[in-house]
Design brief:
The complex is a heterodimer of chains A (346) and B (254).
Chain A (H helix, E strand, L loop, with lengths): L2 E8 L2 E5 L19 H11 L7 E5 L3 E7 L2 E6 L5 E6 L2 E4 L5 E4 L4 E6 L5 E6 L2 E2 L28 E4 L8 E2 L5 H5 L2 E6 L8 H9 L2 E7 L3 E5 L16 E2 L4 E3 L7 E3 L6 E2 L3 E5 L5 H5 L5 E6 L2 H20 L2 E2 L7 H8 L11
Parallel strand pairs in A: 14-22
Antiparallel strand pairs in A: 1-4, 1-12, 2-3, 3-10, 4-9, 5-8, 5-10, 6-7, 6-9, 11-12, 13-23, 14-21, 15-16, 15-22, 16-19, 17-20, 18-19, 18-21
Chain B lengths: L8 E4 L4 E5 L6 H19 L6 E6 L3 E6 L6 H9 L15 E8 L7 H7 L4 H9 L3 E6 L6 E4 L14 E4 L3 E5 L2 E4 L4 E3 L2 E5 L20 E6 L2 H12 L17
Parallel strand pairs in B: 5-13
Antiparallel strand pairs in B: 1-2, 2-4, 3-4, 5-12, 6-7, 6-13, 7-10, 8-11, 9-10, 9-12
Classes of the chains: A alpha+beta (346), B alpha+beta (254).
């Protein structure tokens, strides 16, 4: 069985991503991959995909998808305030994040806005994207992945290879509280010796505002100057960069690199944001104020392992959606839509 | 976690990356050490050792080790590396691959050739022959996907970067700055002096690997005339260029 979805509107920036394109960094090819891997994995689990399956990552919403044929199961991972609607012949229903739904031919899924955070993830059961160099992740600068190496465009058609069966699922979002915080943990280094004691003090005690100059490659911050040791310390012979690297150009204003980070660069890096806190920088909007806190490598690894355990628990504990879990209001609105199979009713 | 016997200094780059730093300069000996350690590690990974190490990234002066913190602690990774006897690395290890890359020097494909000649007090022909007679080493790839940093450019041609970077350096441009030569696989902003253009693709996202070069490879340039440049452009546009033809198979006969 197979089906198709048509992109009616792509929104600001919607790209296909999976876990990323690994093993090619030595050739200068970034990992890319979903900015919020935890949400990717939860949303995929809800629709019966493997955790790292391709998803649509949408910045600020504005995305509209219409089911062309067959039925399509999907789930949106976002903050609860995200405005997600299903438009069908019977009217429009507001959908909940972190829950699967099944849409019929002619139905339109509208991610009108992403709510409190600037990114939302849409998982679609059996979304079938051809991988390029081992990954479906879109990296437009080298025309890799996605559909023809580019973000989604109006009129593009997405293939879906599985048709939904069985009940819908929902799960708690154990990561929401983690993502609501604004303190990012960092491991100091690798070039901390290029900075003055005052520079490091400023980084760890100052407040930094996320700039509007932000994309999948990185986010510019503004705040107390992260001072270099001297003028000669403002450049290094190019060294490896990873997502999370905090590079500091001569201006003293840090730039934190994200999934599409280039692989090497000549600015010294004072510290690295730990992997599980990196989604915060993709999620929070420009103008948000954040702080950095130094942790040891052992504390960082322990935190990563703990979050992985929480995540697995949430995925294991995903629940079948049954009527009794819903308020009358929600039930009524869900039942307005023809074809949304709700739990054991189907 | 540092040991004086190591030829590198380890640095953490977050919870997934360990940087083994060999030095702070750009020179062939450092690159040779990085490439030799990388080869030793690749070999070990191929034999199923170093579980949890995912990939490595060689640069001018360091080797980055990307690992999965759920599978291995970086201290344990360092211990395992020391057991590979990497301290006995031979810094003269040599890549076995060599490439001969066509470049059309000058006219609109090399807008800085004239100014490089006047800044270095050389004739244009001398600049071209100095550059095309050099055996370059691929020091690293990065900055852009597939961008190759080659060294060393002959000392007579060393110039600082242009004071006015260009907004658009065309794909294929071969350019110099200080002791380095670079080949741009993509249109990009850039501040290097453009000597010429390579008409054949050095990055192809439909091939595996997508990039022709790897760190440690040897590259020489072959000066081609306008006719050959245009002919190669045409073959490339038709998708019929076979990049294997750039590979120099060394004559091993006596």
């Amino acid at each position: 069985m197979s089906g198709q979805l048509r992109v009616e509107r792509p929104g600001l920036l919607s790209t296909i991503q999976d876990r990323g394109r690994y093993g090619l960094r030595h050739l200068g090819i970034p990992w890319s991959g979903c900015l919020v891997p935890g949400w990717q994995q939860l949303a995929n689990a809800l629709v019966g995909n493997l955790p790292d399956h391709s998803i649509i990552e949408s910045w600020e919403g504005g995305l509209k998808l219409t089911v062309i044929d067959s039925t399509v199961r999907f789930a949106v991972a976002a903050d609860n305030s995200a405005d997600v609607q299903l438009e069908s012949g019977n009217g429009t229903t507001r959908l909940q994040p972190m829950r699967s739904y099944t849409a019929e031919p002619g139905d339109t899924l509208a991610l009108n806005n992403t709510g409190k955070f600037r990114v939302a993830i849409i998982a679609i059961a059996g979304l079938d994207i051809k991988p390029q160099l081992g990954s479906t992740s879109t990296y437009a600068k080298a025309s890799l992945g996605g559909l023809n190496g580019a973000p989604l465009t109006a009129g593009a058609v997405l293939d879906v290879t599985s048709s939904p069966s069985g009940p819908e699922h929902r799960c708690t979002n154990p990561l929401i509280s983690a993502y609501e915080q604004t303190e990012l943990r960092v491991v100091i280094g690798p070039q901390e010796d290029h900075f003055s004691a005052q520079g490091l003090h400023n980084l760890l005690n100052g407040e930094y505002t996320l700039g509007s100059d932000a994309d999948r490659m990185g986010v510019r911050l503004s705040g107390p100057s992260v001072l270099h040791r001297d003028d000669a310390a403002k450049d290094i012979v190019s060294d490896a960069i990873v997502p999370g690297s905090i590079q500091v150009p001569g201006s003293g204003q840090p730039i934190v690199l994200l999934s599409d980070a280039h692989t090497a660069g000549g600015y010294p890096k004072i510290a690295t944001v730990i992997s599980i806190d990196l989604p915060l920088l993709g999620l929070h909007r420009p103008g948000t104020t954040i702080q950095f806190r130094a942790v040891t490598i052992n504390e960082a690894i322990e935190a990563v392992r703990l979050q992985q355990a929480l995540q697995l628990k949430a995925m294991r504990n995903k629940q079948t959606v049954v009527d009794i879990d819903y308020t009358t209001h929600t039930l009524l609105s869900i039942n307005l839509i023809d074809g949304v199979t709700d739990g054991q009713v189907s | 976690m540092s040991s004086s016997a190591d030829p590198w200094q380890p640095h953490f780059a977050g919870d997934k990356c360990l940087i083994l730093e060999f030095g702070h300069t750009i020179d062939k000996d450092l690159v040779d050490s990085v490439v030799a350690l990388n080869a030793r590690i690749s070999h070990a990974m191929g034999e199923g050792q170093l579980t949890g190490l995912l990939e490595t990234v060689p640069t001018f002066r360091s080797l980055a080790l990307i690992y999965d913190p759920l599978q291995i602690h970086p201290d344990e990774l360092l211990n395992q590396l020391r057991n590979l006897k990497t301290t006995e690395l031979n810094a003269t290890s040599e890549s076995t691959r060599e490439f001969l890359v066509p470049v059309h020097y000058g006219d609109e494909t090399g807008p800085d050739l004239q100014s490089v000649a006047s800044l270095t007090n050389l004739a244009v022909e001398e600049v071209v022959s100095l550059h095309a007679q050099t055996r370059f080493t691929v020091y690293m790839l990065g900055f852009l996907p597939g961008f190759a940093f080659l060294g060393d450019t002959p000392a007579e041609l060393h110039l600082p970067r242009r004071s006015e970077p260009r907004v658009r350096v065309p794909a294929g441009s071969v350019a110099i700055a200080k002791q380095l030569t670079g080949i741009y696989p993509w249109d990009s902003p850039g501040g290097w002096h453009i000597l010429g253009n390579c008409p054949v693709p050095l990055f192809d996202g439909h091939l595996q690997p997508p990039v022709l070069f790897a760190a440690g490879d040897t590259v020489r340039f072959r000066s081609i005339d306008r006719d050959e440049f245009e002919a190669l452009q045409e073959i490339t546009a038709l998708g019929k260029f076979d990049r294997e033809t750039l590979h120099v198979h060394r004559d091993t006969s006596p």
